[in-house]
Amino acid sequence: MMFLxxxxxxxxxxxxxxxxxxxxGLFSKDELQRYARHITLPEIGGVxxxxxxxxxVLVVGAGGLGSPVLLYLAAxxxxxxxxxxxxxxxxxxxxxxIIHRNATLDMPKVxxxxxxxxxxxxxxxxxxxxxxxxxxxxxxxxxEYDLVLDGTDSYATRALINKAAQxxxxxxxxxxxxxxxxxxxxxxxxxxxxxxxxxxxxxxxPGLAVTCxxxxxxxxxxxxxxxxxxxxxxxxxxxxxxxLRGRMVIYDGLSAEMRTITLTRRADCAVCGVG
Length: 275
Ligand SMILES: [Zn+2]
Prior knowledge:
The chain is of the alpha/beta class. Helices cover 34% and strands 17% of the residues. The protein is built from 11 helices and 8 strands.
């Protein structure tokens, strides 16, 4: 049970054909129609859709990766979505940060994002935090959520999220992009999978120390990687399929190639290692 352990749910939802009847109390008629294509899927069903509705997911960063993450999680009916970002919408963001609009230039990104999510799905609750994630608030904030999605572009923030998630026993779905290449994985030392520090113990790790502002980034790349992050989050919440614990998907946009590598936990990891 890697998700919401206090509820002791079964790993796999059974896609009952009485899902509609059971969900009548939790879902309105509009919601049942809205999520009909999910409920039809055997791996999601009414049980999985309920799990999405009761899930609380924190998205760190409302930029390139955060845009598709937030849009797909809200569209999927994730009931409570927290989003933290201290930035405002800049015109140079609009080439890839598709949750923002020309009309929301200069607006705090979390407000611009909340506006768009409310327009997409009024049945989800969005909690915007217009501030930087700091060590003073990270553990308390992450503890309020079941799952964290890291779409930030700084090594220091990634390391901070990793430490706070480890302290809170929360899994982190992390995406990273640079120029034409991106990667996605799920860090979860509580379930035996590596954490971020197991894989990237130092800030000099290639592709992580530089930002999109320095290297440039192709606009559709965060769309690919952020959408994969949303996919993995929906799987993690519903228990569908096999997640990315101990595996990392690497996507090279220039050659249109994708490969999956195995990641191993380090016993001497400074964050999750023993002693
Ligand atoms: Zn570790």
